[in-house]
Amino acid sequence: MRKMKYLLIALFAVLQFTACDSDDDLVVKTGDLPTAAQTFLNQHFPDMKIVQVKLDTEKMGRHYDVKLADGSELEFDENGNWTEVDCKTRAVPSAIVPTPIANYVVSNYNAGVFIVKIEREISGYEIELSNGLDIKFNNEFNVIKVEN
Fold this sequence. Notes:
Layout: H1 2-22, E1 25-28, H2 35-44, E2 50-58, E3 61-68, E4 73-77, E5 82-86, H3 99-108, E6 115-121, E7 124-129, E8 134-138, E9 143-147
Antiparallel strand pairs: 1-2, 2-3, 3-4, 4-5, 5-6, 6-7, 7-8, 8-9
């Protein structure tokens, strides 16, 4: 009986450690966002309610995941710089789209096609269009890849 008790305690401890280790997200207050992220949200999503802010601590650094009332999801690095804006079915704010990318979309796709997601990476940008296409650009805004 004593061995069974210690075995259950050990099993419970392992399960707790695994559960804590696998979830690096911590729900935080909107005010805990870096100032740059708060400014970005106020400027580009002024009337949108923030539903949740999570601080994700990873081995490579920290970032903030923000969910808005309309379902949009944004990601900011630890300094508050946006790294991803996903507006799901509506257009991302045009002010955050670099001009060469906006010009490419306008000149190569129908007027009803717009950018619903933009991601800023070290190697360039990736966008998703309302027609489902994903397009990757390098830092010189040359198209690297287009995929369905």
